[in-house]
């Protein structure tokens, strides 16, 4: 079971949804056909027309459907607020394959009821335009990090060092888009450099402390 929670430090806020109007209710609605879209919707989020001429790009999911068990949860990942433009061959040949690797790793070696995953992008500054308007920001990198507080300590060495937490990033380009897997702290330093900030960055609360460590200490 994968739970997309945010066990993050206070101050690191993750927002995924946009509201077209403050007067609307909190429930999501099915969008009308593109010709009937309210201007406010297009001002606050992407619409399908934004991808119509983006021939090199596919709609890549930030919260991937591979990690959802419930059909309704899977369906909810296909909203345009959960999508970023990804180079098609990078998405198909590299990133989707890696997401499956992570899914199998956590299914096989993560114990307990919960694991956590956070996905994100770094900004390139490039955009996809529709008409004369910049509509979609093109990510420079995609990255992810997972936290598995309880894991199998008898797992093979080639995966055991990747617990309780690990991360990865890859370039959103036609070439050179191999996935680089790194420890959590290395990923945080990489993201700070990409964001050009000196602010503290902590992806998981207390860096995803292993419950295995606590159990071992109690036995002594």
UniProtKB/TrEMBL annotation:
Gene3D superfamilies: Extracellular Endonuclease, subunit A
InterPro entries: DNA/RNA_non-sp_Endonuclease_sf, Endo_G_ENPP1-like_dom, ENDOD1, ENPP1-3/EXOG-like_nuc-like, His-Me_finger_sf
Domain named DNA/RNA non-specific endonuclease/pyrophosphatase/phosphodiesterase: residues: 8-197
UniProt domain ENPP1-3/EXOG-like endonuclease/phosphodiesterase: residue ranges: 15-197
Domain of life (superkingdom): Eukaryota
One Gene Ontology molecular-function label: metal ion binding
Protein name from the UniProt record: Si:dkey-85k7.11
Source lineage: Eukaryota, Metazoa, Chordata, Craniata, Vertebrata
């Amino acid at each position: 079971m994968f739970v997309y929670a945010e066990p993050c430090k206070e101050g690191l806020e993750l927002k995924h949804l946009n509201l077209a109007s403050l007067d609307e209710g909190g429930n999501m609605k099915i969008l009308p056909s593109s010709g009937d879209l309210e201007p406010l919707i297009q001002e606050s989020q992407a619409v399908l027309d934004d991808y119509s001429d983006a021939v090199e790009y596919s709609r890549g999911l930030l919260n991937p459907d591979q990690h959802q068990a419930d059909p309704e949860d899977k369906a909810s990942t296909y909203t345009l607020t959960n999508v970023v433009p990804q180079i098609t061959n990078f998405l198909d040949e590299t990133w989707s394959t890696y997401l499956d690797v992570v899914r199998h790793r956590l299914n096989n070696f993560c114990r307990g009821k919960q694991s956590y995953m956070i996905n994100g992008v770094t900004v390139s500054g490039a955009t996809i335009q529709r008409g004369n308007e910049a509509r979609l920001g093109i990510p420079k990198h995609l990255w992810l990090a997972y936290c598995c507080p309880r894991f199998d300590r008898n797992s093979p060495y080639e995966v055991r060092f990747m617990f309780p937490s690990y991360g990865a990033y890859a370039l959103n380009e036609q070439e050179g888009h191999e996935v680089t897997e790194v420890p959590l702290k290395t990923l945080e330093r990489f993201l700070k450099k990409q964001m050009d900030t000196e602010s503290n960055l902590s992806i998981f609360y207390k860096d995803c402390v292993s419950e295995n460590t606590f159990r071992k200490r109690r036995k002594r």
